[in-house]
Design goal:
The complex is a heterodimer of chains A (158) and B (149). By secondary structure, chain A is α+β, with helices and mostly antiparallel strands. Chain A has one domain: Hotdog Thioesterase (Thiol Ester Dehydrase, Chain A, Roll), CATH 3.10.129.10. Chain A contains 4 helices and 8 strands. In chain A, strand 7 and strand 8 form a beta hairpin. In chain A, helix 1 packs across helix 4. The longest helix of chain A has 20 residues. Chain A starts with 6 loop residues before the first helix and ends with a helix. In chain A, 46% of the residues are buried. By secondary structure, chain B is α+β, with helices and mostly antiparallel strands. Chain B has one domain: Thiol Ester Dehydrase, Chain A (Roll). Chain B starts with a helix and ends with a strand. Classes of the chains: A alpha+beta (158), B alpha+beta (149). Strand 5 of chain A pairs antiparallel with strand 5 of chain B, so a sheet runs across the interface.
Chain lengths: 158, 149
Amino acid sequence: MANMFDISQIQNIIDIGIPHCADIGVKVEEISETDVAMRLPYDKRFVGNPVSGVLHGGIITTLIDSASGMCIYVKMQKYIPIATLDLRIDYLKAAEPGRDVIARATCYKLSRQIAFVRAIAYHDDPDDPIANSVSTFMLKSTPTKPLNVASKEMADKK
Amino acid sequence: MTENSSEQFLEAILKAKASKDLSAVSDLIPYFSYLGLEIQEEGDQYICHLPQAKKFTGNPTLPAIHGGVVGAFLESTALVHLLLTQDLKQLPKIITFTVDYLRSAKVEDCFAEAIITKPGRRVANMRVRAWQKDRNKPIATANANFLVS
C-alpha cells in the first residue's frame, strides 16, 4: 500500500475529503515528520481590497487552519477525527497582491485529548511572515470515520 | 497596499453606506461575494448571513462547515460592523484574531453579530458571535483587534 502520508496521497485525500480546500485550490507543498506546508495559489475570488488586490485575512485563516489540522494527522500518522478548539492569528503584514501564500504548521505537543499547533504564513521566506498562529485541536472529536477512509469511500462512489 | 488604494476603497464603502445600500458593501469586496455574504439591519445592529453552500464543507462525513470559513465569516462580520457603525478615516486593518469553536457548524445558514468592546482611538477591540438555527446556541465566538488609525 502506498504511504498515506506522501504528498500525492495527502493531496488526493484533501481533494476528495475536504471539499472547501479543493474549492479554494489548496496544494500540499511539503511534508516532514513534524511540519506540513500548504500553498494557496493567488486567486482574485479571495481579494479583500479590490483596489490593491490584497487577499482577505479570512482566506489566510482557512489556509492556516487546514495546514494546522493536517500537521496533526502527519504527526500521529493517523487520520483520526479532529476539531479546531481555538485558533489565534496575528496578522503581521498584508499579503502582496498576485502572490501565492504558503502556510507551514507544526504540531509541537500532543496530549491524550488535545493537539497544540503553531503555524506561520508567508510568500517565500519563512523569516518574513505575513501571519503567525497558535491553535489547539480536540482529538477524536466525533465517532465518525477517519478522513482517509471517508474520502476513499467517496472516491469509490464517484 | 498603497495609501491611495485604501482611500479609494474606503470612499466607495462610505458611499454605499451613505446610500444605505448594504448589498453594495458586500459586492465591493470579492471575498464577501465568494462567501455570498448578506448584511441585514436589525434595529441599530447589523447581522451578517452566510448562506448555506456545499463548497464550504470541511468535513463531509459529519457533515460540517470548514473551521476556516467560520473564522473568515466572523472576521468579515467584525469588519462589516466597523465599516457601517464607525466614522473611519482609513480602512481598518486586522491585527489579532482569536476564534473559539464551540459546536461543529452544520452545512446550513450561519448568522453572526459583532459588538465593539472598546472603540479606542487607535485600536478597536471587538467581540463576534455566530449561530445557526438557534440564536442561543453559538457555534463560535471571536475576539478581534483592528487598527483604525
